[in-house]
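Pilot study result, target chain (326 residues):
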Amino acid sequence: MSTRTKENHTKPLRLFKIEQAIQNLSYPDVARLMDELEVSRRTILRDIDELKIYYNAPIEYDRTRKGYYYSDNTYFVKNMMLTESEVFAVTGILPLMERYNNTPLKKTIEKVYDTLSQMLPNQVEVQSSFTNDVEFIADPIPVIPETVFNDVFKATKLHKIMTFDYRSISATSWSPHELYPYKIYNQKGDWYILGYSPHRDSFSTFTLARMKNIRLGDDFTPDPDYAKKIHIDPNFGIWNNDSKPKTIELVFDKSVNTYILERTWHKNQKCHQNPDGSVFLSFESNQLQETLYWALRFGAAVTVLNPPELVKMYEEEVRKMALKIK
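Predicted structure:
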């Protein structure tokens, strides 16, 4: 770690300790602060000046007692001591949280943002040039009612049986369901609950945005072996099914060469460029339906090689689309 990097990490804590020493000790002098913090006289004097300038600390020196004190006894450093790079990180990360605008978390995030703003020194503005120069574009995501979001989290945490009305992706009406909730997932901005469904006699996944009228019922004891009964692939889909993972193989045209090579599509992928500029990609997954939807995004730029089931699914979907062309 470089000297400058180390200073960036230790300085906020050192400033805090100096502030506490002046607040709680009886007129600490430079020598005492040097001894306690194991730094030079120059560093202590520079830190005291920074507390005065950037944190408006009313620090005075008493020549009679030969030590520092606060001229305002009610003062304390309420500001969070962040380095410039840390402030940059805060202002950069918060806009990324816009993907949670469809959930009650939005209010919590805004509260955190306001709290950080109030804790930062007066000379630091949260609205940095970074947020003005960069715009974050999120995928369109459905809105989740606050009651649904809160009830699902409560039921999962307290192990409560849930009953609710659900509208599946192809349905035109709502149907009643019962669920023993086990785990909540957020995948690419969408929220899901995975649990045991008595009606299906299996662990199933439901989308929070398609739920309403949630009622919490009796407690249940979670199955200690439930993890062994879950067959999902978070990289491509969280829909539970008993199908064993298949080796998926695809070839992408040269037209999307760089786009494919520069990304990690799956944690166990194998990816390389062929002599003709095309790209071979393979990985294992049991989420054939989700893989099909993903592959269709590339149109004629992708060729599905394996497994045979996926090849057939792809051919049938392309045939259906062709029939819609008038």
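One observation from the pilot: The radius of gyration is 29 Å. A full batch analysis is planned for the follow-on phase.
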